[in-house]
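Reopening this one. Same input as before:
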Amino acid sequence: MKYEGLIIRPPSEADSLILQITVGCSHNACTFCPAYKKKRFRIKKLEEIYRDIDAAAAACAHETRRVFLCDGDPLVIPQQTLLPVLQRINERFDKLLRIGIYANAGSILKNSPAELTALREQKLGIVYMGLESGDAVTLERVKKGATVEQMVAAAQKVNDAGIKLSVTVILGLGGAERSEIHARETMRVLNRMKPQHIGALTLMIVEGSPLYNELASGIFTLPEPFALISELRMMLEESQLEKCVFYSNHASNYLPLRVRLSQGKEKALQEIDAVLKNKDLRMLTPEFHRAL
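Same output, byte for byte:
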Protein backbone atom coordinates (compact mmCIF):
# COMPACT_ATOMS: atom_id res chain seq x y z
CA MET A 1 0.00 0.00 0.00
CA LYS A 2 1.15 3.51 -0.77
CA TYR A 3 0.58 6.44 1.58
CA GLU A 4 1.40 10.03 0.63
CA GLY A 5 2.35 12.53 3.30
CA LEU A 6 1.04 12.71 6.86
CA ILE A 7 -1.91 10.40 7.50
CA ILE A 8 -4.53 11.50 10.02
CA ARG A 9 -7.33 9.39 11.47
CA PRO A 10 -9.83 9.69 14.34
CA PRO A 11 -8.75 8.10 17.66
CA SER A 12 -11.63 5.62 17.37
CA GLU A 13 -10.16 4.25 14.12
CA ALA A 14 -6.91 3.14 15.77
CA ASP A 15 -7.53 -0.52 14.95
CA SER A 16 -8.88 0.09 11.45
CA LEU A 17 -7.19 -0.53 8.12
CA ILE A 18 -6.38 2.97 6.81
CA LEU A 19 -7.00 3.34 3.08
CA GLN A 20 -5.92 6.62 1.47
CA ILE A 21 -8.22 7.34 -1.47
CA THR A 22 -7.75 11.12 -1.60
CA VAL A 23 -4.61 13.12 -1.01
CA GLY A 24 -5.03 16.30 1.01
CA CYS A 25 -8.26 18.17 1.72
CA SER A 26 -10.75 19.51 -0.81
CA HIS A 27 -11.29 22.68 1.27
CA ASN A 28 -7.87 23.16 2.92
CA ALA A 29 -8.53 26.77 3.91
CA CYS A 30 -9.22 26.47 7.67
CA THR A 31 -6.88 28.87 9.47
CA PHE A 32 -6.33 26.54 12.45
CA CYS A 33 -5.46 23.39 10.49
CA PRO A 34 -1.91 22.71 9.26
CA ALA A 35 -2.59 19.06 8.37
CA TYR A 36 -2.82 19.26 4.59
CA LYS A 37 -1.16 22.58 3.77
CA LYS A 38 1.74 20.83 2.02
CA LYS A 39 -0.55 18.62 -0.08
CA ARG A 40 -2.39 19.57 -3.22
CA PHE A 41 -5.80 17.91 -3.19
CA ARG A 42 -6.46 15.12 -5.62
CA ILE A 43 -8.56 12.00 -5.89
CA LYS A 44 -6.46 8.91 -6.47
CA LYS A 45 -7.07 7.02 -9.69
CA LEU A 46 -9.45 4.10 -9.37
CA GLU A 47 -6.86 1.54 -10.47
CA GLU A 48 -4.45 2.87 -7.83
CA ILE A 49 -7.11 2.54 -5.12
CA TYR A 50 -7.95 -0.98 -6.29
CA ARG A 51 -4.28 -1.99 -6.10
CA ASP A 52 -4.10 -0.80 -2.49
CA ILE A 53 -7.31 -2.62 -1.57
CA ASP A 54 -6.09 -5.85 -3.15
CA ALA A 55 -2.65 -5.57 -1.53
CA ALA A 56 -4.18 -5.02 1.90
CA ALA A 57 -6.62 -7.88 1.39
CA ALA A 58 -3.78 -10.22 0.48
CA ALA A 59 -2.05 -9.32 3.75
CA CYS A 60 -4.89 -9.08 6.27
CA ALA A 61 -8.33 -9.79 4.76
CA HIS A 62 -9.46 -12.20 7.47
CA GLU A 63 -8.30 -9.96 10.35
CA THR A 64 -9.84 -6.71 9.09
CA ARG A 65 -13.11 -5.68 10.69
CA ARG A 66 -13.03 -1.96 9.98
CA VAL A 67 -11.69 0.21 7.19
CA PHE A 68 -11.19 3.98 7.42
CA LEU A 69 -11.01 6.13 4.28
CA CYS A 70 -8.78 9.21 4.23
CA ASP A 71 -7.34 11.89 3.60
CA GLY A 72 -9.59 14.83 4.30
CA ASP A 73 -13.10 14.60 2.88
CA PRO A 74 -13.15 11.48 0.63
CA LEU A 75 -16.94 11.83 0.47
CA VAL A 76 -16.32 14.54 -2.14
CA ILE A 77 -15.49 11.73 -4.60
CA PRO A 78 -18.29 11.34 -7.17
CA GLN A 79 -20.69 8.49 -6.46
CA GLN A 80 -19.79 6.67 -9.67
CA THR A 81 -16.25 6.27 -8.29
CA LEU A 82 -16.83 6.05 -4.54
CA LEU A 83 -19.53 3.38 -4.64
CA PRO A 84 -17.37 0.90 -6.62
CA VAL A 85 -14.55 1.50 -4.11
CA LEU A 86 -16.82 0.48 -1.24
CA GLN A 87 -18.06 -2.50 -3.24
CA ARG A 88 -14.46 -3.60 -3.86
CA ILE A 89 -13.68 -3.32 -0.14
CA ASN A 90 -16.71 -5.46 0.70
CA GLU A 91 -15.70 -8.06 -1.87
CA ARG A 92 -12.12 -8.34 -0.60
CA PHE A 93 -12.69 -8.28 3.17
CA ASP A 94 -15.05 -11.06 4.21
CA LYS A 95 -15.09 -10.11 7.93
CA LEU A 96 -15.79 -6.43 7.32
CA LEU A 97 -18.19 -4.78 9.77
CA ARG A 98 -17.85 -1.08 9.03
CA ILE A 99 -16.31 1.56 6.81
CA GLY A 100 -15.65 5.06 8.18
CA ILE A 101 -14.97 8.27 6.30
CA TYR A 102 -14.12 11.95 6.80
CA ALA A 103 -16.59 14.43 5.29
CA ASN A 104 -17.42 18.12 5.38
CA ALA A 105 -20.80 19.80 5.10
CA GLY A 106 -20.39 20.57 1.41
CA SER A 107 -19.56 17.01 0.37
CA ILE A 108 -22.43 15.61 2.43
CA LEU A 109 -24.93 18.06 0.97
CA LYS A 110 -23.92 17.30 -2.62
CA ASN A 111 -24.98 13.67 -2.10
CA SER A 112 -28.64 12.80 -2.56
CA PRO A 113 -30.45 10.76 0.11
CA ALA A 114 -30.43 7.80 -2.30
CA GLU A 115 -26.66 8.09 -2.78
CA LEU A 116 -25.99 8.15 0.96
CA THR A 117 -28.30 5.16 1.43
CA ALA A 118 -26.43 3.26 -1.29
CA LEU A 119 -23.15 3.94 0.55
CA ARG A 120 -24.66 2.77 3.83
CA GLU A 121 -25.73 -0.46 2.14
CA GLN A 122 -22.06 -1.00 1.31
CA LYS A 123 -21.26 -0.75 5.05
CA LEU A 124 -20.46 2.95 5.29
CA GLY A 125 -21.24 2.98 8.98
CA ILE A 126 -19.88 6.26 10.30
CA VAL A 127 -19.17 9.76 8.99
CA TYR A 128 -16.72 12.02 10.84
CA MET A 129 -17.55 15.68 10.38
CA GLY A 130 -15.87 18.79 11.78
CA LEU A 131 -18.26 21.39 13.16
CA GLU A 132 -15.43 23.01 15.16
CA SER A 133 -17.69 25.83 16.42
CA GLY A 134 -21.36 26.66 16.56
CA ASP A 135 -20.57 30.36 16.70
CA ALA A 136 -21.20 31.85 13.25
CA VAL A 137 -18.62 34.59 13.78
CA THR A 138 -15.92 32.07 14.70
CA LEU A 139 -16.78 29.79 11.76
CA GLU A 140 -16.40 32.67 9.34
CA ARG A 141 -13.19 33.91 10.92
CA VAL A 142 -11.46 30.51 10.73
CA LYS A 143 -12.67 30.08 7.12
CA LYS A 144 -14.43 26.81 7.74
CA GLY A 145 -16.30 27.12 4.47
CA ALA A 146 -19.78 26.27 5.79
CA THR A 147 -22.47 28.06 7.77
CA VAL A 148 -24.19 26.77 10.89
CA GLU A 149 -27.33 26.01 8.91
CA GLN A 150 -25.34 24.03 6.34
CA MET A 151 -23.74 22.04 9.15
CA VAL A 152 -27.15 21.21 10.63
CA ALA A 153 -28.59 20.27 7.23
CA ALA A 154 -25.62 17.99 6.50
CA ALA A 155 -25.98 16.27 9.86
CA GLN A 156 -29.67 15.69 9.23
CA LYS A 157 -28.85 14.06 5.90
CA VAL A 158 -26.41 11.64 7.50
CA ASN A 159 -28.87 10.77 10.26
CA ASP A 160 -31.70 10.27 7.78
CA ALA A 161 -29.53 7.85 5.81
CA GLY A 162 -29.07 5.69 8.91
CA ILE A 163 -25.33 6.37 9.13
CA LYS A 164 -23.72 7.15 12.48
CA LEU A 165 -22.47 10.72 12.84
CA SER A 166 -19.40 11.74 14.83
CA VAL A 167 -18.84 15.49 15.13
CA THR A 168 -15.62 17.23 16.15
CA VAL A 169 -15.49 20.52 18.04
CA ILE A 170 -12.46 22.53 19.17
CA LEU A 171 -12.14 24.07 22.62
CA GLY A 172 -10.54 27.52 22.44
CA LEU A 173 -11.30 28.17 18.77
CA GLY A 174 -13.28 31.31 19.58
CA GLY A 175 -10.27 32.78 21.34
CA ALA A 176 -10.40 34.50 24.71
CA GLU A 177 -12.75 37.17 23.35
CA ARG A 178 -15.55 34.79 22.29
CA SER A 179 -14.82 31.91 24.66
CA GLU A 180 -18.26 31.65 26.29
CA ILE A 181 -20.19 32.39 23.09
CA HIS A 182 -18.20 29.73 21.25
CA ALA A 183 -18.77 27.12 23.96
CA ARG A 184 -22.50 27.65 24.43
CA GLU A 185 -23.37 28.11 20.76
CA THR A 186 -21.38 25.02 19.83
CA MET A 187 -23.45 22.75 22.03
CA ARG A 188 -26.69 24.45 20.97
CA VAL A 189 -25.84 23.59 17.38
CA LEU A 190 -24.85 20.05 18.38
CA ASN A 191 -28.27 19.68 20.00
CA ARG A 192 -29.76 20.36 16.56
CA MET A 193 -27.32 18.09 14.73
CA LYS A 194 -28.03 15.10 17.01
CA PRO A 195 -24.77 13.19 16.50
CA GLN A 196 -24.16 9.82 18.13
CA HIS A 197 -20.61 10.84 19.05
CA ILE A 198 -18.98 14.19 19.87
CA GLY A 199 -15.21 14.56 20.01
CA ALA A 200 -13.89 17.69 21.71
CA LEU A 201 -10.31 18.60 20.90
CA THR A 202 -8.36 21.49 22.40
CA LEU A 203 -6.87 24.06 20.06
CA MET A 204 -3.12 23.68 19.58
CA ILE A 205 -1.75 26.38 17.30
CA VAL A 206 0.93 25.11 14.95
CA GLU A 207 3.63 27.30 13.49
CA GLY A 208 3.00 27.90 9.82
CA SER A 209 -0.79 27.94 10.11
CA PRO A 210 -2.64 31.23 9.45
CA LEU A 211 -3.92 31.20 13.04
CA TYR A 212 -0.32 31.08 14.30
CA ASN A 213 0.30 34.38 12.54
CA GLU A 214 -2.83 35.85 14.15
CA LEU A 215 -1.58 34.70 17.55
CA ALA A 216 1.88 36.16 16.95
CA SER A 217 0.45 39.51 15.87
CA GLY A 218 -1.96 39.73 18.81
CA ILE A 219 -5.12 39.45 16.70
CA PHE A 220 -5.97 36.14 18.39
CA THR A 221 -5.58 35.27 22.07
CA LEU A 222 -5.68 31.65 23.19
CA PRO A 223 -7.69 31.05 26.38
CA GLU A 224 -5.60 29.84 29.32
CA PRO A 225 -6.00 26.18 30.42
CA PHE A 226 -8.71 26.67 33.04
CA ALA A 227 -10.70 28.89 30.69
CA LEU A 228 -10.62 25.97 28.25
CA ILE A 229 -11.91 23.68 31.00
CA SER A 230 -14.69 26.22 31.58
CA GLU A 231 -15.59 25.96 27.91
CA LEU A 232 -15.80 22.19 28.32
CA ARG A 233 -18.16 22.67 31.25
CA MET A 234 -20.38 25.13 29.39
CA MET A 235 -20.67 22.76 26.45
CA LEU A 236 -21.78 19.89 28.66
CA GLU A 237 -24.12 22.16 30.62
CA GLU A 238 -25.93 23.17 27.40
CA SER A 239 -26.35 19.57 26.20
CA GLN A 240 -29.87 18.27 25.63
CA LEU A 241 -28.67 15.13 23.85
CA GLU A 242 -29.53 11.71 25.16
CA LYS A 243 -28.27 9.08 22.72
CA CYS A 244 -24.78 10.48 22.42
CA VAL A 245 -21.31 9.87 23.85
CA PHE A 246 -19.12 12.93 24.47
CA TYR A 247 -15.35 12.48 24.41
CA SER A 248 -12.59 14.87 25.42
CA ASN A 249 -9.92 12.16 25.49
CA HIS A 250 -7.93 13.34 22.47
CA ALA A 251 -4.20 13.85 23.08
CA SER A 252 -4.67 17.63 22.86
CA ASN A 253 -7.02 17.85 25.85
CA TYR A 254 -6.20 18.98 29.37
CA LEU A 255 -8.99 16.96 30.99
CA PRO A 256 -9.86 13.59 29.43
CA LEU A 257 -13.51 12.61 29.78
CA ARG A 258 -15.87 10.06 28.29
CA VAL A 259 -19.47 10.99 29.05
CA ARG A 260 -22.63 9.16 28.05
CA LEU A 261 -24.83 12.23 27.99
CA SER A 262 -28.04 10.46 28.95
CA GLN A 263 -26.49 9.20 32.18
CA GLY A 264 -23.15 10.75 33.06
CA LYS A 265 -23.61 14.46 32.49
CA GLU A 266 -24.03 15.53 36.12
CA LYS A 267 -21.09 13.41 37.31
CA ALA A 268 -18.90 14.93 34.61
CA LEU A 269 -19.96 18.46 35.59
CA GLN A 270 -19.04 17.70 39.20
CA GLU A 271 -15.61 16.45 38.12
CA ILE A 272 -15.03 19.60 36.08
CA ASP A 273 -16.23 21.80 38.97
CA ALA A 274 -13.66 20.19 41.26
CA VAL A 275 -10.91 21.03 38.78
CA LEU A 276 -12.12 24.62 38.37
CA LYS A 277 -12.40 25.09 42.13
CA ASN A 278 -8.86 23.92 42.86
CA LYS A 279 -7.21 25.38 39.75
CA ASP A 280 -4.28 23.05 40.32
CA LEU A 281 -2.33 22.43 37.12
CA ARG A 282 -1.38 19.02 38.47
CA MET A 283 -5.00 17.96 37.87
CA LEU A 284 -4.57 18.59 34.15
CA THR A 285 -2.68 16.72 31.47
CA PRO A 286 0.83 18.23 31.48
CA GLU A 287 1.87 20.24 28.45
CA PHE A 288 4.58 17.77 27.43
CA HIS A 289 1.94 15.03 27.10
CA ARG A 290 -0.36 17.06 24.88
CA ALA A 291 -0.16 16.55 21.14
CA LEU A 292 -2.15 16.70 17.91
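So the earlier flakiness isn't reproducible anymore. For the record, Residues 11-289 form a domain with the TIM Barrel fold (CATH 3.20.20.70).
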